[in-house]
Write a structure and sequence with these properties.
Length: 242
């Protein structure tokens, strides 16, 4: 049996998380801003299916991407260099999270981004903690991703694309932008082949926590973000792929 969370803002010790399913720590509680921020600061995130209670996770190992280890696949590099798209940050957060909720996932019948989840992260966005990276083409929002930032740590949550490579373009630009801003780690939660192609890799929970604690203690970027292209990337905003 896993612990059931009450009103108190507290989580069980991470060492009590189940090995199977990997990292299941607790159930219940709420998705208020204080609990969500406390969870992320402890290396915990919510993930559950519609109709289930809120489930809280801290897997071991943990999938991460160090921004300096970003790999741009050769097949994507030409698209990154072209000038047919624009990258924006935090201009359409609610639209991004709702599009993520509506995007089909391989092996999944539904989505965990139920309305209460969309509302909770939209509230975090209003408070300046959650952010969206967006890919626009011909004035239309065609892909993007969202996540949570604390200090110099970014926690990725979900992405979607309505045109080929749109979410990848947003992801590549965001990672390079985060690196230029001094962010040291991107949490990818669970391993996927897709993220591995971009340089993501698994590390132990203990290594993840040690790095995360150091990064969240650093001064962060408050409020809504505005995209300024770092040197080294293409697209409508300029630059070249290394």
């Amino acid at each position: 049996m896993i612990p059931w969370l009450g009103r108190a803002l507290a989580f069980p010790p991470l060492e009590s998380a189940l090995q199977e399913p990997n990292g299941l720590l607790a159930a219940g509680g709420d998705l208020g801003p204080d609990r969500l921020l406390l969870a992320y600061q402890q290396g915990i995130f919510p993930w559950f299916s519609p109709g289930d209670p809120i489930l809280w996770w801290s897997p071991d190992p943990r999938m991460v991407l160090y921004p300096q280890e970003l790999h741009i696949p050769r097949s994507l590099a030409k698209t990154v260099r072209n000038r047919s798209y624009e990258i924006r940050l935090d201009t359409a957060f609610r639209r991004v999270i709702e599009a993520c909720a509506q995007s089909p996932r391989p092996g999944q019948d539904g989505t965990w981004i139920v309305p209460e989840v969309a509302d909770a992260y939209s509230r975090l966005h209003e408070l300046g903690w959650a952010h969206s990276a967006e890919c626009w083409m011909d004035g239309e929002l065609v892909g993007g991703l969202y996540g949570v930032a604390i200090g110099k740590m970014f926690y990725g949550e979900s992405m979607y694309a309505h045109r080929p490579d749109a979410s990848k373009l947003a992801f590549v630009h965001l990672v390079q932008w985060l690196r230029a801003a001094g962010f040291g780690l991107i949490d990818c939660q669970m391993r996927t082949a897709h993220l591995s192609r971009f340089g993501g890799r698994e590390i132990s929970r203990s290594e993840f926590l040690a790095t995360m604690r150091r990064l969240i203690a650093q001064p962060g970027l408050t409020g809504h973000w505005q995209y300024q292209p770092p040197a080294g990337l293409g697209g409508l905003n300029g630059g070249e792929v290394p």
